[in-house]
């Protein structure tokens, strides 16, 4: 007896929609999403689409009408609830456009719950396009099967971040001057990873971080890593030892 094909197929397009989804809902997509479904994927009536809303979870929909500039979908059932992700924040000094796009994409794929830009004394980028970064987050979440988007916070100065720090959240900072092996500092529970700018933290900043309750310096190995590489390596290490990779 032939096996029943998986439904929806693995090739089913997956999109984020910024509205609350529910059974039986009909919604119309236009702009880039309609172009993607109608002109790139060439979907027609009856074809499946997976949708998620960062509120209720992921849903299966089918195309009820497809035109050049507008695609209408009808939700047919819920596939899964919104996921619970480990309570890990990534705190990072803004870097140049290409590398920061990569950093945000990989942090999303690796499972960070919150992305917080932090302005330090040696930060070379003082203006961020948060809309572009959020678009990167959404695209990465669509690709990696996340149902919960990481929160993207407004930039904050390091001094303000440390002043208001909650001692109940571990603050693991990548200390290029040396620190404890990452395996010794990653523990389950609320945590944040702090990655400095391309020039590193100043001595005064490093002292202020170390004096913050809950802070501990961590080593990311014997080699010098670019800021975006350090961020991805630290998240992966934490997820392996304390997150949802265990």
Which class of the largest domain in CATH terms? Alpha Beta
Helix content: 25-40%
User: Which structural class should the secondary elements be placed in?
Assistant: alpha/beta
Tally of strands? 13
CATH topology of the largest domain: Alpha/beta knot
Tell me, what's the shape?
elongated
Radius of gyration: 21 Å
Number of helices: 7
CATH H-level name of the largest domain... which superfamily?
Answer: SPOUT methyltransferase, trefoil knot domain
Helices and strands, in order, run as: EEHEEEEHEHEEHEEHEHEH
Beta fraction: 25-35%
For the record, the CATH architecture of the largest domain stands as 3-Layer(aba) Sandwich
Largest sheet: 8 strands, parallel
State the low-pLDDT regions, or none: none
Q: pLDDT average, as an integer?
A: 94
